[in-house]
Amino acid sequence: MKYIRYLVFTIKSAFFDFSRSKGRTFLTSLGILIGVMAVVLLMVLGLGLKRYIEQQFESLGSNLMYVMPGSKATITRGGGIVGGIKFDDKDVRTIEKVKSITYIAPGYAKAGSTVEANGKTEIVEIVGSSEQIVPMFNLEVEYGRLMEKKDVQKGGKVIMLSTTVVEKLFDSAEESVGKNVTMENQNFKIIGVIKSKGGGGLGGGGLDDHAYIPFKATYSFNPDKKFYAIYFKAENKDAIPQIKEDVQRLLERRYDKDDFSVLEQKEIMETISSIFSIINTVLVAIAAISLVVGGIGIMNIMYVTVTERIREIGIRRALGAKKSDILAQFLTESVILSLIGGILGLTVSYVIVFFLQSLFPAYIDAQSIILALGVSSAIGIIFGVFPAKKAADLTPMDAIRYE
Amino acid sequence: MIKLQGVWKEYQIDREITFTALKDITLTIEKGEFIGVVGPSGCGKSTLMYVMGLLDQPTKGSIHVDEKNVTGLGDDKISALRNAFFGFVFQQFNLINKLTVLENILLPSVYASVKLSYDPLEKARDLVDKFGLKGKENSYPNKISGGQQQRVAIARALIMHPECILADEPTGNLDSKTGESILDLLSELNREEKITIVVVTHDAHVAERTRRTIKMVDGQIV
Ligand SMILES: Nc1ncnc2c1ncn2[C@@H]1O[C@H](COP(=O)(O)OP(=O)(O)OP(=O)(O)O)[C@@H](O)[C@H]1O
Ligand SMILES: [Mg+2]
C-alpha cells in the first residue's frame, strides 16, 4: 500500500511537471522518438529484406546449384564476381554428364536492359538460357507457352516475360502473346507469359524482371558466346555433395581452381543474407547514435528541471525524503520522459511500416517492441542518473533556502 | 530532549573566506517546551533552527536528540529522524504546488521508514477538519489564502505525530490577525498535545506568546 502511494505520488508529480511544460516535454521526447524510429525502421527493413531474399530463393525451388567464376572465398566474402573466367557450351556438356544432375542450363545474364512495345519501355534482366531453365526455376505459364527445345536449337528470337512486365507494356497480359517487343535493337516475339513470383518493388523487379530468351539469341549482343553462370539441379539433397565434388574435378581439368566455384543455392542465399545483415547492423548502429543524442537531450532537460525544483527537493528532504527517494523521483521522471519518446517512436514506425507493407514483407515484431521500450528506459536511467544524483546530493538546508 | 553542545556553523563564502553563523551554541530544550528564538536579522536564528532540525550538519559540536548523539549519523538515518521526530513550518509555507492540500499533508507519510500504526489518510482528514480546511482538500496550495496555506503546513508537520515542531517566522507572511490565529494553533498544540515547539521570530510580539525566549546576537546566545 505504502509503495503504491509512493509510486502514485512520484508518477503524478512527474506528469504534473510534464503537463506544465508540454512543449519542452515533447521536444525532449522528440530526440528519443527519432532515435527509436530510426532504429526500429532499419531493423524492420533489414528483416524484411532478408525475408524478401529468402522468399525469392525459395521460389526457385530446392536443390539448385551454380557454377560461377571466382573463388568461393571471394564470392562468399561478398567480393562478387570479379574478373574471372566465362564459361561456354563445352562446360555445359561436361557437367551434364555428372550423375544425379536432372537439369542443366547456361546462364547468360545482362541486367539493366530494356524491352519496348507500344511506345512503352520496361527495364529487364536478359537471361539467355535453354528450355531446361523452366523446370529449374519452377517457371509456370500464364498465357501462351513455355520455351521448348526447338526454340533453343533454332536460336529463334522468342521471349518469355512475366505478367508483371507485360501488363505494363500491353493492355492485357493475355493479348501480348504473339506480339513483338524490341530488345537490344532486335525484335523478339512473346511466346509465353509466365506467372509472377511476387516480390519486386524494391527498385528492382526481383525474379519477375527476367526476360528469358534462347541462349543462341544472345549471340548478336554477346559475340564471344560465353556466359557467367551454369545452373543445374540435383536429383535430391543428398546428392549435392557428390555433385559438387564431381563438377569441381571436371572443371579443374580446364580451369584453375581459384577461377571458378561450385555453389549450392543455400550458400548463395546465406552469403547474400549475411551481407545484408552486416550492412543492416552498421546502419542500425549509426541510427543508435541518434538515440544517444536523444539521451543527451534528456540529460540536459533533467539538469534544468533539477535546478528549477531545488526548493521542492529541499521541502521533500525536510519532510524526511532520503537521498534515494529523490534519486528515484528524478529517475522516474527521466525514464517516463524517454519512454514517452520510445512509445511515440514505435507508433510512428507502425504507421510507416503499415504503408511499407505494400512494397515488401515488413512488420514490427515483438522483439523490436521490447527492444525499443527497453532501450528507451535504459536511456532514461543512464542519462537521468547524473541529474538525479545532483538533486539527491543537495544539502537540504541549501535547497530549501534556494531562491 | 534536544541538546546542542558547543555547536558552530561556518559558511564557506569563497575559498578563503568563511562566515561564522553560529558560535559555540550550547542549549537544551526539554520536552513540552514552547520556545521563542529572537534576535536581529542575520544573527543566525534560522541557521540554528536548521541545524537543530538536522537539515544541515554543524561544523563543530554535537547534537543529541532523545539522548542520542546524531552528529555524524548517515543521511538515511538522519532523514528518518527528520521524518518521524520533527515537523517544520516555514515563513514561505513551502507547500508543493503541484500536490493538492490533502496530498501535501500526506507527503511526510510517503517517506515514512517504518510502518505507521495509524492510517495517515484518516489522520489527514481529521487535521483538515480540525484546521477548518474542509472543502479545500483537493484544492491546490496557490488557490487558497496564506492563512489556510500555513494551516496546511502545520497539518503536514503533524501528520507523523512529531515530538517537536520547528517554525521559522511562521507569521512573517501573514497579517496580524491571521498570524495570531496561527500562534493560537501552535500554543494549543503545545498545551494539549505536549508537542515541543520552537518558534524563530524577530517579532517581539510573537515572542511574548512563548514560554521561554532565547535571544541571539551575532551567532551567539545572550
Ligand atoms: N548558505 C549561506 N552561505 C553564506 N552565508 C549564509 C548562508 N546562509 C546564511 N548565511 C549568513 O548567515 C547569517 C545568519 O543567517 P540566518 O538566515 O540564520 O539569519 P536569521 O537570523 O534567520 O535572519 P533573518 O531574521 O533575516 O531571517 C547571515 O548573515 C547570512 O547572511
Ligand atoms: Mg531567518
From TrEMBL, chain A:
Superkingdom field: Bacteria
Q: Name one Pfam family in it.
A: FtsX
Cite the MacB-like periplasmic core domain residue spans from the record.
25-249
Where does the sequence pass through the membrane? 26-49, 282-306, 327-356, 368-388
Q: Which residues form a coiled coil?
A: none
User: Mind telling me which InterPro entries this protein's record contains?
Assistant: ABC3_permease_C, MacB_PCD, Macrolide_Exporter_MacB
Keywords for this entry?
Cell membrane, Membrane, Transmembrane, Transmembrane helix
Which residues does the UniProt record annotate as the domain ABC3 transporter permease C-terminal? 285-394
The answer, when asked if Cell membrane is one of the entry's keywords, is yes
Record localization: Cell membrane
> What cellular component terms from Gene Ontology apply here?
plasma membrane
Q: Chief location of this protein?
A: membrane
Q: Which family does it belong to?
A: Belongs to the ABC-4 integral membrane protein family.
This protein is called: Multidrug ABC transporter substrate-binding protein
TrEMBL record, chain B:
PROSITE patterns in UniProt: ABC_TRANSPORTER_1 (PS00211), ABC_TRANSPORTER_2 (PS50893)
- Asked if the record carries the keyword Nucleotide-binding, the reply is yes
All copies of the ABC transporter domain together span 2-222
Q: Which GO terms describe its molecular function?
A: ATP binding; ATP hydrolysis activity; transmembrane transporter activity
Q: Return the InterPro entries for the record.
A: AAA+_ATPase (IPR003593), ABC_transporter-like_ATP-bd (IPR003439), ABC_transporter-like_CS (IPR017871), ABC_transpr_LolD-like (IPR015854), MacB-like_ATP-bd (IPR017911), P-loop_NTPase (IPR027417)
Q: Name one Pfam family in it.
A: ABC_tran
For this UniProt record, the keywords arranged alphabetically read as follows: ATP-binding, Lipoprotein, Nucleotide-binding, Transport
Q: Which segments of the protein form a coiled coil according to its record?
A: none
Do you know which Gene3D superfamilies this protein is assigned to?
P-loop containing nucleotide triphosphate hydrolases
Instruction: Choose one Gene Ontology CC annotation of this protein and give it.
Output: plasma membrane
Q: What is this protein called?
A: Lipoprotein-releasing system ATP-binding protein LolD
